[in-house]
Amino acid sequence: MGLQIPSAVDGGTPLEVSEAVFGRDYNDSLVHQLVVAYFAGARSGTKAQKTRSEVSGGGAKPWRQKGSGRARAGTTRSPLWRTGGVTFAARPRSYEQKLNKKMYRAAMRSILSELLRQGRLYISDDIHPSAPKTKELLQKLQGLGFKRGLVVTDALDENLFLAARNLQDVLVCTASSVNPVALVHSEKVILTSQAAKQLEVGLA
């Protein structure tokens, strides 16, 4: 038996979807792992510092070993010195965390199911503006009672994308590029019927 995603339009026709994708129990630990992995993968990891062998200077011993009254020093590149090298220098690295495809799909199913249970997931095919005009899109969203959240389409629509750029609380993406953080943080998520079917097939 399938589930139904309600229409964003009052009196509109709901969309029947698979319970295997939109009717799963919420797995908090798995969703948390997915969100952490997503943020970790977004880190640039380009931080770099120089060790004592990489900084400039050094060469001759700063002063003789004994008799000067100062502490022994063999090089100006020592980490103890100003402009010296860093003891445990940072290196460019990847923060990416491995997440199996099976775990990713299960976590995404869990998120979508919870959105549907909480009444935050809707269907609407009348979301595309006829021109790249923010005013027109805003009127459509207000007619759907949509103030802030995520709009997911089956394919990238240039008019929709350009019209939504000036709306701070509205994010537009395709079903193939939807990310878990956007889903979790969205107050309301509107899917086109084709986008819902793409998610259903991709996460089955």
Please name the defining characteristics of this protein.
204 residues, alpha/beta, Ribosomal Protein L4, Chain: A, two-stranded antiparallel sheet, 6 strands
Helix content: 25-40%
SSE sequence, one letter per element: EEHHHEHEHEHEH
Shape: elongated
If you compute it from the alpha carbons, what radius of gyration comes out, rounded to the nearest whole angstrom? 27 Å
What about the largest sheet? 4 strands, parallel
Distance from first to last alpha carbon: 15 Å
Q: Strand share of the residues?
A: 5-15%
Class by alpha and beta content: alpha/beta
* CATH domain fold name of the domain at 19-45 and 94-202: Ribosomal Protein L4, Chain: A
Mean pLDDT across all residues, rounded? 93
How are the SSEs ordered, and which strands pair?
Elements: E1 3-5, E2 15-17, H1 19-22, H2 28-42, H3 101-117, E3 121-123, H4 134-143, E4 149-153, H5 158-164, E5 170-174, H6 180-185, E6 189-191, H7 193-202
Parallel strand pairs: 3-6, 4-5, 4-6
Antiparallel strand pairs: 1-2
Helix pairs in contact: 2-3, 4-5
Can you walk through the features of this model?
- With 204 residues, the chain is an alpha/beta fold.
- 34% of the residues lie in helices and 11% in strands.
- The strands form 2 sheets. Strands 3-6-4-5 form a 4-stranded parallel sheet.
- Helix 2 (28-42) crosses helix 3 and helix 4 crosses helix 5 (158-164).
In short:
By secondary structure, this protein is of the alpha/beta class. The chain contains seven helices and six strands. The protein has a domain at 19-45 and 94-202: Ribosomal Protein L4, Chain: A (3-Layer(aba) Sandwich).
